[in-house]
Design brief:
The protein contains 16 helices and 13 strands. Helix 3 links the parallel strand 3 and strand 4. It is globular and about 60 Å long.
Length: 359
Amino acid sequence: MATKTRKKVLVVDDDNDVLRLVQIQLAGAQSGRFGYEVETLTDPLAALARAKEQPFDAVMSDLRMPDMDGIAFLKAFAAIQPRCARLMLSGVSDTGTVSKMVDEAQIHRFVPKPWSRDELLVMLGEAMDSAGAPVAARSHSLPRPTSTTLRTTPLLAELPDATLIKLAAMADWQAYDAGETILHQNDQTKSIYFVISGYIKVMRGGPHAHIPPAQSGVERRAGGRKEFMLALLGPGDMVGEVTSLLDVGRSASIVALTPCQLIRLGSDDFLACMQQNSQFALAIARKLAQRLVAADRQVELMRGDLAGRIHAMLRHCRTIGLDSERWLTNAEIARMVGATRVAVSQIMSRINRKNATSA
């Protein structure tokens, strides 16, 4: 009988009971593709020193620790071992905090407390698959999501277990690098995408718009229009639901702003879930209502002066946990606020100087 491959896992938590639990759950795992060799530490600084000595296949960290929180720890760990799978263990469930974890620490999986042994094994395996997949093949080679990972998405969490298990058999992972086009404007394909990690931008016009061989002159001119950004979406958001509900072509392109992972679900499966689960349908309705309110707010902001629109844009980025300084160029901001890059650059220079002075 072939010897099972052993994967090295580092677990960091200031609670010794949690460390013992994870060690028992992983060290005793004999099913699946491989076994685990588990190392535990209570001090994140000692764990970073250890990372310089020993390569690991995965690292798990608690969010709240006294000397260094889990976000800062995993971010520092990624700088030492970028190919190591990163998982966050936490009882925190609000979308804003989870988004911050995903964006700043670039975690591969969020493991909500409490978890079962089976859930932990599934998420650890998925995280290692995501971390190790070659860039060019990620969108095609990622493992099929499980009901456990589907439940970490706020909208899908409303579904009963039986429905989630059924959906997991029909859904798939999609991963993209920054700048990759996920969907083209005017495409006729109908799928719903749930953002698990990273950020995407909704664009209209410009080079991302597919020009169909249509009879409609209006649609054929779409690709020649000036490109502008309609929205920024992050973890917990969905895209594609309007196309499915109205049965129309896509009115905008979806582009990865940062490296991101999404769960794709077919339109028919999505609509069936809405028909069969009133709680899920209500959650979708609430999300659409939030989008409408946000659109109205954006219209109001566009009536203000340019500086006010830029400040509002930067506040929105902070709200959703997006590092705008890292990921948004002045040209991107200009497309979002309806201005020229030159005008935005002048105002951003003043904002940056002010921030540097106050720092």
